Amino acid sequence: MAETAAAAAAAEAASAETPPFQLGKPRFQQTSFYGRFRHFLDIIDPRTLFVTESRLKEAVQLLEDYKHGTLPPGVTNEQLWSAQKIKQAILHPDTNEKIFMPFRMSGYIPFGTPIVVGLLLPNQTLASTIFWQWLNQSHNACVNYANRNATKPLPASKFIQGYLGAVISAVSIAVGLNALVQRANKFTPATRLLIQRFVPFPAVASANICNVVLMRHNELEEGIDVLDSDGNIVGSSRIAARHALIETALTRVVLPMPILVLPPIIMSVLEKTFLLQSRPRLLLPVQSFVCLAAFGLALPLAISLFPQMSEIETSQLEPEIALATASRTVVYNKGL
Q1: Which of 37, 106, 299, 313 is placed for a possible disulfide with 304 were both Cys, Cβ 3.0 to 4.6 Å?
Q2: Spatial CA neighbour of 86 closest among 42, 125, 121
Q3: Is it the case that residue 22 has pLDDT exceeding 70?
C-alpha cells in the first residue's frame, strides 16, 4: 500500500515538473542558452536511433490526435512531449520525410566519432590525411543536406558543388599545413608531432564554412520561407536566408573546437603516463573515449548557440514581407 502511494506521489511530482504540451513548440524555453542546450540534448539523444517504425507511427498519430482534439483519455503531457521528441529526431521539419539514420543529429556523435579518431591519429601519411578529411567532409555534407532548410529545392549541381568545394578546401589546408610543419626544422620531433595533431582544426573549420555556404548558396538567391506566429508563410526572404547561413556557419566553426583541440592536449598528457607507456595497445581505445567525450560535449554546446527556429523582426526584412503581415516578428528554420 505504501509502495503504491509512493509511486503515485512520484508520478504526480513528475507530472508537475512537466510543462503543458504545445504542439510544434520546444519543451524548454529557447530564449536562453540553457533552455536551448536542454532542447538539443533531446534532439541528439542517440536512443531515438532505436525507435521502431511502429513506435514512430504511434508518436505521429498521437500528435495528429492532439492537433484535431481527439486525444484518447489519460494521455499525459510527458507522453506528448516524448512523441514530439521522437518525431523531431527522425522526420525533417519541412518535408516530414525520414532522415537517413547516419545523417540525423542523433546519429552525428555515434557515426562521427570514428572519423574524429581517424583525423587525430598521430603520424599521418599523405594518403591517410586525404582519406580522413574526405570522409569527414562527406559525412558533414550529407548531414548539412539532410538537416537543411528544405522549403526550397536544392539542385543536385549545388550539392555536388558544395561537396567538392568542402573536400578540396579541407584536403588542401590539411596537406599544406602538414607540409609546412614537416619543413619547420627548428621544431623538435615531439613538438612537430604535437603541432600536427592540431592541423585538423583549421582544415575542418574552414571546410565546414565552405560546405555550408556552397551547399546552401541557392537559399541566398531564392530566399527561405518566413512564418508568422500562427505558422502561416508570410513570404520568401533572402535576408533571413543570410542570417540562417551565418548562424549555421558560426556553429560549424565552434563545433570542431573542443573535438579537435581538447583531445590532442589530453592525449599528450595521458601518453606520458606509466599505464599507456607500458600498454601502448590502450592508446587507440583511450583516444576513442576522449574523442567521444569531447564530441558529446561539443555538439549540444555548438548547436545551442542559436535556436533552430530563429526569430527576426519584420522591419529588418524585405519591404514586401514587412507589408504582408501585421506581426512584429517572424520565424524561419535556420537548419542544423
Answers
A1: 37
A2: 42
A3: yes
pLDDT in tens, 93-126: 888 889 999 999 899 889 988 988 888 787 778 8
Average pLDDT, the chain: 82
Contact predicate 49/110, CB 8 Å: yes
- The grid coordinates of residue 219 equal 537559399
Residue with cell 591519429: 121
Contact 80, 21 (CB under 8 A): yes
Q: For residues 283 and 285, give the distance between their C-alpha atoms in angstroms, rounded to a whole number.
A: 6
- What is the residue whose three cell numbers read 511502429? 54
Cell representation of residue 287: 583516444
3-state secondary structure at position 312: strand
Distance CA 185, CA 183 (A): 6
Q: Where are the domains of the chain?
A: 17-90, 102-333
In Å, how far are 1, 96, 212, 306 from 247, measured between CA atoms?
55, 23, 10, 7
How far is the C-alpha of 317 from the C-alpha of 240, rounded, in Å? 7
What is the structure's pLDDT at 3? Answer: 43
Q: Which residues pair with 332 in a beta bridge?
A: 310
> Where would I find the beta strands (DSSP E) of the chain?
224-227, 233-237, 309-313, 329-333
Judged on CB neighbours under 10 Å (0-12, 13-18, 19+), 43 is buried
* CA 47 to the chain's CA centroid: 16
- Helix then strand then coil, in percent of the chain rounded to 5, is 70, 5, 25
**Cβ proximity of 59 and 87 under 8 Å:** yes
User: C-alpha distances in angstroms, 276 versus 109, 189, 190, 301?
Assistant: 26, 20, 17, 30
Q: Could you tell me the pTM of the whole model?
A: 0.71
Q: Is 329 in a helix, a strand, or coil?
A: strand
Residue 305 in 3-state DSSP?
Answer: coil
How many H-runs (helices) and E-runs (strands) does the chain carry? Answer: 15, 4
